[in-house]
Design brief:
By secondary structure, the protein is an alpha+beta fold. 72% of the residues lie in helices and 8% in strands. Strands 2-3-1-4 form a four-stranded antiparallel beta sheet. It starts with a helix and ends in a 7-residue tail after the last helix.
Length: 291
């Protein structure tokens, strides 16, 4: 009978440990994911901004010398992330693929212009920034037109600001919830040992002596949960890096390492503080209140 009871107690203890590790792992994984998103949010928004294209069309009179000079000016001004020359023949082929018809045969000529697709650097991706670049480009007398989506630029910048604000709010709320969840799991774990705590206190053990093994055990569980969270986060980073290389997720290795270290430190701190106050609560309870 005693053996069955011991097995039951052991299973309950293992279940209690598992729930603490699982709650620490899940909460810290999500917090770490949020932290990685925050440190990479500017690069993500910059990549999105730099996908917006400004197309510069040249008149038919423009020749290779004009194009080479224009490219030299773009490189000198340093407002462009990259640029690509699109000949009117290439443009015609793209239009034919889209339309499914050979419109050049129907018209008897190619009405399109030679052009450049320019991706501006993120700092210039505002309506005033695009306007300044457009004004500079239009000074070239052989430029026929400059085309870009003004509404898209406004939309992107407004959404980036809103998303940044909500990320900060969610980070604060989520951190608070994380502390509450881990604290609750640890308190439940210690609650099952409340009679042992009170018995040790009644035979003369000091509060520090009673608290020490519980704090030590909780820190170990916190470290296990934190390490699991870090390993999964590293796996997520490698997955993103291999499937989305343009994001350059490892561009800031120091900040990434700090986030992962922060996950470990946070796991230790939360479990230590929560266990300290949870054991203190049961140490201060009267014997009758334990029931």
């Amino acid at each position: 009978m005693a053996s069955n009871f011991d097995k039951f107690q052991k299973r309950r203890l293992i279940s209690s440990y598992f729930s603490v590790v699982l709650s620490v792992f899940l909460v810290l994984f999500l917090l770490g994911l949020l932290g990685l998103f925050v440190i990479n949010s500017k690069r993500l928004s910059d990549n999105f901004k730099e996908d917006i294209v400004m197309t510069v069309f040249f008149k038919n009179e423009a020749n290779d010398t004009v194009f080479k000079q224009f490219e030299a000016e773009i490189k000198a001004d340093k407002f462009a992330k990259d640029f690509k020359f699109v000949s009117k023949e290439e443009a015609a082929k793209e239009h034919e693929k889209t339309l499914g018809e050979h419109f050049t045969e129907f018209l008897g000529a190619n009405p399109l212009y030679n052009s450049y697709d320019i991706h501006l650097k993120a700092d210039y991706v505002t309506n005033p920034g695009f306007s300044r670049v457009e004004s500079e480009i239009r000074k070239n007398p052989l430029v026929s037109d400059v085309v870009y989506d003004k509404q898209l630029i406004t939309l992107v910048n407004d959404n980036v600001k809103k998303i940044s604000m909500w990320v900060l709010i969610i980070s604060g709320i989520f951190t608070f919830i994380a502390i509450l969840l881990i604290n609750s799991s640890l308190r439940l774990s210690i609650h099952s040992n409340r009679f042992i705590i009170k018995t040790m206190q009644m035979v003369g053990a000091t509060k520090t002596f009673i608290r020490r093994p519980f704090v030590k055990r909780s820190i170990i569980l916190g470290v296990i949960g934190s390490v699991l969270a870090i390993l999964v986060l590293i796996g997520v980073l490698f997955y993103i890096s291999s499937n989305y290389p343009d994001l350059d997720i490892f561009k800031e290795p120091t900040l990434t390492a700090l986030v992962l270290l922060g996950v470990l430190v946070l796991g230790v701190l939360i479990t230590w503080i929560s266990t300290h106050f949870a054991t203190q609560r049961f140490l201060n309870l009267r014997t009758d209140d334990l029931y």
